[in-house]
């Protein structure tokens, strides 16, 4: 009986976390993503990296299919769209005058904007290459 009680708490916490994450309005993925099985990005070697819906699958948060992630000096995280427009992925980039990413945000199957979390994480990983 004691063994069950000790495993019930962690399982309960995990279930609570899942419920909280899904109820926070983080936005579900698109109903029909262009790429269901993501293709992992290669390890970055500079402060820029090409990225596309193919890499994030259901987590692709934008209405454009591809672009470039950049980490600029001062940890400014930016997405560069195919048309060359730069969009801020964090507050530091917006404070530097780069327009926000909202015009390119996609909505998920639930109607909420798809979370930028996966894209931001990848872009922040590029900051190790900025001086």
Structure annotation, total helices: 4
Shape: globular
Oligomeric state of the chains in view: single chain
Q: List how many beta strands DSSP finds.
A: 4
Tell me the strand percentage band.
15-25%
Proportion in helices: 25-40%
What structural category characterises the helix and strand content?
Answer: alpha+beta
Our count of domains comes out at: 1
Rg computed from alpha carbons, rounded to a whole number of angstroms? 18 Å
Order of helices and strands: HEHEEEHH
Largest sheet: 4 strands, antiparallel
Descriptive account of the structure:
With 131 residues, this protein is an alpha+beta fold. 30% of the residues lie in helices and 15% in strands. It has one domain. The chain has helices at residues 2-23, 53-56, 91-95, 117-124; strands at 48-52, 66-72, 76-80, 86-88. Strands 1-2-3-4 form a four-stranded antiparallel β-sheet. It starts with a helix and ends in a 7-residue tail after the last helix. This is DUF2511 domain-containing protein. InterPro entries: YebY.
């Amino acid at each position: 009986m004691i063994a069950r009680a000790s495993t019930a708490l962690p399982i309960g916490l995990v279930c609570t976390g899942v419920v909280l994450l899904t109820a926070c309005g983080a936005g579900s993925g698109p109903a029909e993503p262009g790429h269901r099985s993501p293709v992992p990005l290669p390890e970055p070697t500079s402060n820029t990296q090409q990225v596309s819906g193919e890499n994030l699958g259901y987590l692709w948060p934008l209405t454009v299919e591809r672009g470039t992630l950049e980490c600029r000096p001062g940890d400014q995280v930016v997405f560069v769209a195919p048309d060359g427009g730069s969009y801020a992925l964090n507050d530091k980039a917006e404070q530097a005058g780069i327009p926000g990413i909202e015009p390119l945000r996609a909505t998920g199957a639930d109607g909420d904007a798809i979370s930028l979390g996966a894209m931001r994480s990848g872009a922040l990983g590029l900051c190790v290459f900025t001086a």
